[in-house]
Amino acid sequence: MAPHISEFIPLNIAVLTVSDSRGAADDSSGDYLASALTQAGHKLVDRALCADNLFRVRAQVSQWIVDDNVQVVLINGGTGFNEQNRVPEAVGVLFERTVQGFGEMFRQLSFAEIKGSAMQSRALAGLANRTLICCLPGSTGACQLGWEKLIRDQLDVRTRPCNFATQLIR
């Protein structure tokens, strides 16, 4: 167990929006995540938008995984249950360890809002090279749900009994 830390430690976070239809001017989900993470005290160190292409997504995430300045990658979009959405296939193979409960908890929380449609979410998270990667659906509401209910507290070293932040500090 990591020692108790009583002072907030900001993390370096990159945000990736995966979309075939949105651009920088109308990326409300990416805007939300960038704003939420900075309001929480973290640092937005990079932000990108790319088409839902397995290899482009994998290349961008791989670049951040090997960058010692990036501790967390937040991805929005590309997690739905149709053949155009390729984020789980692009990113899942990069994980050294999958955060098994992330997708289950996200779908459970989503069920309260969207009922059975929640089962079509393929939200997932994992660790690669001491980088936490969280993949959320592309809607701003889903990003807000994921940030507020699952991610935000896990990126705070003061969260007990455990958090991811202590594993990401280099």
Structure commentary:
The chain has 170 residues and is α/β, with parallel strands linked by helices. The protein has helices spanning 28-39, 54-65, 87-92, 100-114, 140-154, 165-168, and strands spanning 12-18, 43-50, 72-76, 97-98, 124-128, 131-136. The protein has a single domain, classed as Molybdenum Cofactor Biosythetic Enzyme, Chain A (3-Layer(aba) Sandwich), CATH 3.40.980.10. Helix content is 38%, strand content 19%. Strand 1 (12-18), helix 1 (28-39) and strand 2 (43-50) form a beta-alpha-beta unit.
Mean pLDDT: 91
**Fold-level CATH name:** Molybdenum Cofactor Biosythetic Enzyme, Chain A
CATH architectural designation: 3-Layer(aba) Sandwich
Shape: globular
CATH class: Alpha Beta
Unreliably modeled segments: none
Portion of residues in beta strands equals: 15-25%
The sequence of SSEs as H and E is EHEHEHEHEEHH
Please tell me how large the radius of gyration is. 15 Å
| Structural classification | alpha/beta
Instruction: Count up the helices.
Output: 6
Largest sheet: 6 strands, mixed
How many domains in all?
Answer: 1
Overall strand count: 6
Alpha-carbon distance between the termini? 17 Å
Pathway: Cofactor biosynthesis; molybdopterin biosynthesis
Function: May be involved in the biosynthesis of molybdopterin.
Keywords: Molybdenum cofactor biosynthesis
Pfam families: MoCF_biosynth (PF00994)
